[in-house]
Amino acid sequence: MGSDMNETERQKIVIKLSGSVFNFNTQSVVLKEYADLFMSLNEKVQLIIITGGGKIARHYIELARALNGDEATLDTLGIDVSRINARLLLTAIGRLGYPQIPKSLDEVSMALEFNKIVVVGGLHPGQSTNATSALISEKIGANTFINATDVSGIYDKDPAVNSDAKMFTELSVGKCMELLGQKNSQAGTYELMDLVALKVIQRSRIRTIVMNSDINSLKDIILKGSNFGTRITF
Amino acid sequence: MGSDMNETERQKIVIKLSGSVFNFNTQSVVLKEYADLFMSLNEKVQLIIITGGGKIARHYIELARALNGDEATLDTLGIDVSRINARLLLTAIGRLGYPQIPKSLDEVSMALEFNKIVVVGGLHPGQSTNATSALISEKIGANTFINATDVSGIYDKDPAVNSDAKMFTELSVGKCMELLGQKNSQAGTYELMDLVALKVIQRSRIRTIVMNSDINSLKDIILKGSNFGTRITF
Amino acid sequence: MGSDMNETERQKIVIKLSGSVFNFNTQSVVLKEYADLFMSLNEKVQLIIITGGGKIARHYIELARALNGDEATLDTLGIDVSRINARLLLTAIGRLGYPQIPKSLDEVSMALEFNKIVVVGGLHPGQSTNATSALISEKIGANTFINATDVSGIYDKDPAVNSDAKMFTELSVGKCMELLGQKNSQAGTYELMDLVALKVIQRSRIRTIVMNSDINSLKDIILKGSNFGTRITF
Amino acid sequence: MGSDMNETERQKIVIKLSGSVFNFNTQSVVLKEYADLFMSLNEKVQLIIITGGGKIARHYIELARALNGDEATLDTLGIDVSRINARLLLTAIGRLGYPQIPKSLDEVSMALEFNKIVVVGGLHPGQSTNATSALISEKIGANTFINATDVSGIYDKDPAVNSDAKMFTELSVGKCMELLGQKNSQAGTYELMDLVALKVIQRSRIRTIVMNSDINSLKDIILKGSNFGTRITF
Amino acid sequence: MGSDMNETERQKIVIKLSGSVFNFNTQSVVLKEYADLFMSLNEKVQLIIITGGGKIARHYIELARALNGDEATLDTLGIDVSRINARLLLTAIGRLGYPQIPKSLDEVSMALEFNKIVVVGGLHPGQSTNATSALISEKIGANTFINATDVSGIYDKDPAVNSDAKMFTELSVGKCMELLGQKNSQAGTYELMDLVALKVIQRSRIRTIVMNSDINSLKDIILKGSNFGTRITF
Amino acid sequence: MGSDMNETERQKIVIKLSGSVFNFNTQSVVLKEYADLFMSLNEKVQLIIITGGGKIARHYIELARALNGDEATLDTLGIDVSRINARLLLTAIGRLGYPQIPKSLDEVSMALEFNKIVVVGGLHPGQSTNATSALISEKIGANTFINATDVSGIYDKDPAVNSDAKMFTELSVGKCMELLGQKNSQAGTYELMDLVALKVIQRSRIRTIVMNSDINSLKDIILKGSNFGTRITF
C-alpha cells in the first residue's frame, strides 16, 4: 500500500460536491471535467468527494412526503440518490477511484488505505451530506474541507432574493451558526451548512471553505491556490 | 407468521410494475392508487411487487455509458434506481408493507414470513427486473406472475411503429422466445420479456400474463378476473 | 405477527434510559426492576428503550481522547458501551425482548415487526443517544418520547450548581434550543437534549417529556399517568 | 498497492475452470498443478479463476430436485459447492491468492485491488458459472476469457454421441447462440455456453476461447500461445 | 411469534444429525423420512437440527490437508459442506422450515422467533458441530440435546475394533471427559463428543443423549420415549 | 500489498494481551507505552494483538449472570468489552494500525494484506480469547504466540495462594493440559490457557510463550530476546 512516508505526506482534501452537479439535464462532459480535475490531483492529494443528492433527490423526497413518509425515510431516499450520484462520478473517474461507495465512517477509513480517490454519498438518516462531510473531515484528519455549493459563499442575506446581499470572505464559526440558526431541517431543504456540520467543524477546528461548485472555481482554488468563497474562522 | 393453514391458502401473486410508473413527472396520487389497490388485496393475497427503473434509471445509465462505464456498473445504476422506486412505493403502502427492500432471493424468502406486501427492486447486475421477477416467482412458487408493462401485451410487431400490429391473447413460451430472440441486451434497453425470464417461466411453468401497467387494467384483472394482455402458454 | 389491528392499537413509547443506570456499581436488582416494569407494559405498549453509555463510556472516551483519538472514534467507543448496556438490559428482560440490538434505523423498523421490547444503544458516530432516540421516535411514529435522564427535568440554570434553579413543567422547543444553544458537542459531554434531538422533535412534533430516570418516577408516569419532569411544547 | 502503471500493464485473464476438475476422485497433485500454473503467471497476468460445481454439485442438485426443491435452491446448492471448490483451489495457491472467495461482482472488483490471484465460485441463483464468468470478464475489462470445459471446443454436433462431430476453430457468437438455443436451463444441466454468457460476450465483444480444461492444454495456450479450442468471433 | 404462552410450552429439542446421513450415496427417500419425522413434531416441539459434514466434508478436508491448508481452512471446508447438508435437509422440510441457514448463535436466536424447524450447519472454525450443538443447546435453553451419531452410544472401548466393547446406558460427564481426553482434534477427525461440547454440557447441565442416528431409533426415542443410547449424567 | 518478498520475510507474532491492561484505573500513558512498543516493531514484524476483556468484562458478565443470562450471552458481553479494549489500543497505535477490529478469522486474514498492526478482541461465544489467539496463530502460520497474562508463567500450583509455587521455564503441552484439566469454563473465569487453546497449539505445533504482560518484560523478550515466562514444548 505504498510507503507510510508517502501517506503522511499526501494532503487530505474533503470536497462536498453540490447535488446540483447531478441533475436531470447534467451533461456527461461536465462530469468528465470534474473527474479529470480530481484524477489530476490524485498523485499529490488524497481526495474524498461527497456527492449531494440534488434535484432528483428532491423529486423523490417530495413524492415521499406527499405520501406521508416519515422524515427518516425521506432522508434515506436522499442518501440513496446521493450514492447513485457518487457511483456516476466514480464511473467517470475509473480505475483511479476506490471501487466501492463507502456506507459508514468505518468504510471511509478502510477506503483510505488504498490511496485512490474515494467517492461517498450520504451515510445515515438524520445527517445532511454537509454534516457527513464534516464528520468525514474530522475522522480522517482532513487538511481542508471544501464545501462546493450552489452559491459563491456565505452571504449576510439570501443572495437569491436580496440584490444587496454581501458575501463574507471570512466568517467565524459562531457567527455562521447564528446566521443559520433559524433554518429548519426538513430532509432535502436548502441549507448551506447545517448546525451539526458547524459544530463538528468547530470542535475539531477543521479548515473549511464554502464556495461555488463550478468547475473553474474549483480548478482555480485547488490548482492555483486562488482565494474563493468564504473561509470559516475559529 | 400466523397459522400455516393461512399461509398455504393465500395465493401468491408476483407483479413486475413497469418503471414507467416512476418518472420525472409521476404524481403522488397515482402511486397512492397503486398502493391502495395492493393494500386492499393483502388480506387474501401474498403480493410481491418488483419495481422497474424507468426513465430516471435510463438517465443515469446513459450518462454512465457516455462516461465509458462497464455494463455491470450500468446495471447497478439501474438496480439502484429501481430500489429507490421500490422504497417510494413502500412508503405509500405504509405499515402493510414489509419494512425493507430485499436485496437477494434469500431475503425475499425471509420477507414472505411476515405476511406483508413485499416490494423489491432489481437484485443483481446481469439480470433484468423481468428476469428477477421470474426468478422470484419460481423461488416462492407464485400462482401468477403479472408483467405489468408499457404496452397492452405482446404484439407480432412493435405496436409503436406498426399501426397494424396485432396483440396475442395467448402465446406459447417458445413462440415468445423466437419473437424476442433478436433483441439485444444492453442495460436499460426496452425489452418486454428477456430470454432469461422466458427460460425460467418455461422450466417452472409459471402462469404468466403480460399486460399494461395502468391502474385500471390492474384493478380489473385482479379484482374482477377480467382477461387482459397476453397469456403465456406452455 | 399478531393482527394488524393489534399493531395499530398498541401505543409506541420510546424511552431514552440514562447511561447512569449502567455503572461501575450498578446492582443487578436495579436492572431487574427496570426490566420488570418494561415487561409488565409489553402487552399494552410497544416499548423501544435506548440505553446511554454512562460512566464506563466516559472512561473509555477520556482514555481515547488522551491518546489523541479523533471524535468519531470517541463517539464509536461511547456507542459500543451503550450497546453493551443495551444487551445487559435485554438479558434482564429475557424472552420478551427482541433478541438482537438493532444497529440502524432500518433494523429498528424490522425489530418492531416482532411485537417484543426493543432495546437499542447508540447508532452512528456524530449522533448522541438523545438524537438517536428522537430519530427513532420520528421513524416509528412514537406516541411519546420519554427522555429519562439524571435530573428531574429542564431547569432555567444548572441545578447542580445553582440552588435556586427552577424546573419548567412545560417548555417550548424554541426556548429549549436557546437554553442549550451554548453547550459544546464533544463526545460524551453532558447534554440534556442536544440540538439535533430538538430539531427532530420540532419538525415531527413528537410528544416529549424530560424527566428523572429513577425507577419510581418512571413507574408513576407510565403506570399512573402522573405528571413529572418537563413537557416540551410546540 | 503497487503503481498504477503496473496495474494497467498486467493483462487480465478470466478462466472458467470446469467443475470436472473438482470431483469425488480428484487427486491433490492435479490441483497442485493447476495452482502452480496460476502462480507462475501471477507476476505478469492478473488471473481471475471461476470454479464450476462438478459432480458433487450435481449430486446435491439431484437430491434436492428429488425432494421437490425449487430451481433457485438447486442453483444455490450448485453455487455453494462451486465456492467450496474455489476455496480448495485457493488453498493450493496459498499466499499468492486473494484470501477470500468474492460473493458479488462488487467484491470481485475490490479483490482486484490486491494484485493477487482471485478465485471465485458462482455468484447468484439464476446465473450459470459460465454467465458469471462472462459478467466478471465484462466488469473488469478482461483481455481474454478462457472457458476451460470438458470438451475440446464447440462442435457442430454433440461429440459424445456423434463420432463424426466436427470442432470449430472459430465460430461467430450469433452462430453459437443458434447452436445452443435449443438447450434447456435446468440447474446443473450440461451447457457449454449458455445464452446469458453469449449475450454478455457479444455486447462487450469479449475475446473468448472455449477449450479443454486439462492442465497441458491450459499450459500450452497460456505459456506458449498455442491455438486450442474454439475462438468466438464477432 | 404467536402467543408467548405457546412459546414457553413448546419443548426445545436440539438434534445433532450425523454427517453420515448425508453422503455420496444418500437416497432422497431417507432424507424425506427424517424430514417427515421432524415435520410431524413441529406442532409440539421447537426443533433445532445441526447437520454434520460427513464423508463429503472429509473428502475436501483431506484434499486441503494434502495441499498444506491450515487447520482453520480445513474447518471452514467442513463447515461449508455441513451447511450444504443443512440446506438439503431444509429443502426436504419445505415451508415448515426456517428459510435460512443461521451462521451464528445470534442468528439461531433470531430464527427461533419464527416457530419453525431451524436447520443449522457448523458455525465457526475451531468448533466441532458437536460443540456447536452444545452451545446452541445452552444458548436457547434446550430441554434435551440428542447427539445422533454413527454408533449406538458411548462404549468403554471403540466398538469398531473391540468386539467385547460395552455400551453405557448412563455415563457421568466427568467419566466421559476421561474417556475422550486422549483423542486429538484435527479437523474432521472422528470424535463422539469433544471436550468443548462436554464442558458446555457440564456447565449448563444440559440433558444429553448420545445415540444412533438411524431413523427408527430417532422415531422411537422421540415419539415413544423409548430409552436409547447413553444418557450423560451430572 | 508491497512486494511478496517483503511479506514472507516479516516474522508474524501473535500477542494475547491480558485484559488486566485495560481496567477501571488504566492510565493512557501505559497504553501509549504498549502502542509505542508495537509501533517500533512494525517495520520488521507483522504483529497481531488480541486484547482480553479484563475487569470491565467481568463486571458485565457478573451482572448478566445475576440476571440469569445464558453463558453465550455472557461470552458475548466479554467479547464486546474486549473489542472496545482493542479499539482503544488501536487508537493509541494510530495510522500504523489496521483501521478496523476484525470479527472473524477470515477478516483477520484480510487484515494481514495491509502490512499494518492488527488489533483483535474476542471472536465468537464459546471461545476464550486465549483459544482465539491460538486459532489466529494457527490460521496465519505465526512464528510465535506470546500469551501475555497476569502471572509470570505457568506454575505447579496457583502462585496467588501458594508461596512455594514454582514456575516452569519449559512445560510440555501434555503436562500443561493435565495441570489445567480441572478448571471449569464459566465465561470470564480465570484460565491461563484453556484446553481448546492447548489443543490448537499442539495440533499445529505453535511456538508458545506464557509470560507476564507488563511492558518491560514484553520489551525485553521482543527487543532483546530475553528469556521469560514458560515456553510450551511438544
Q: What's the layout of helices and strands?
A:
Six copies of one chain form a homohexamer.
Chain A: H1 4-9, E1 11-17, H2 28-41, E2 45-51, H3 54-66, H4 71-93, H5 105-112, E3 118-120, H6 129-140, E4 144-149, E5 170-172, H7 173-180, H8 195-204, E6 208-212, H9 215-224, E7 230-233
Helix pairs in contact in A: 2-4, 3-4, 6-8, 7-8
Provide key terms for this protein.
234 residues; disordered N terminus; homohexamer; Carbamate kinase; seven-stranded mixed sheet; 9 helices; alpha/beta
Can you walk through the features of this model?
The structure is a homohexamer of 234-residue chains. By secondary structure, the first copy, chain A, is an alpha/beta fold. Chain A has one domain (4-233): Acetylglutamate kinase-like (Carbamate kinase). Helices cover 44% and strands 15% of the residues of chain A. Chain A has helices spanning 4-9, 28-41, 54-66, 71-93, 105-112, 129-140, 173-180, 195-204, 215-224; strands spanning 11-17, 45-51, 118-120, 144-149, 170-172, 208-212, 230-233. In chain A, helix 2 (28-41) crosses helix 4. The longest helix of chain A has 23 residues, at 71-93.
Total count of domains of chain A: 1
String of helices and strands of chain A = HEHEHHHEHEEHHEHE
Q: In percent, how much strand structure appears in the residues of chain A?
A: 5-15%
* Estimated structural class of chain A: alpha/beta
Net shape of chain A: globular
Text of the CATH class of chain A: Alpha Beta
Q: Report the CATH superfamily of chain A.
A: Acetylglutamate kinase-like
Number of strands of chain A: 7
What is the strand arrangement across the widest sheet of chain A? 3-2-1-4-6-7-5
Radius of gyration of chain A, in angstroms, nearest whole number: 17 Å
Largest sheet of chain A: 7 strands, mixed
What is the helical fraction of chain A, as a range of percent?
40-55%
Cα separation of the termini of chain A: 36 Å
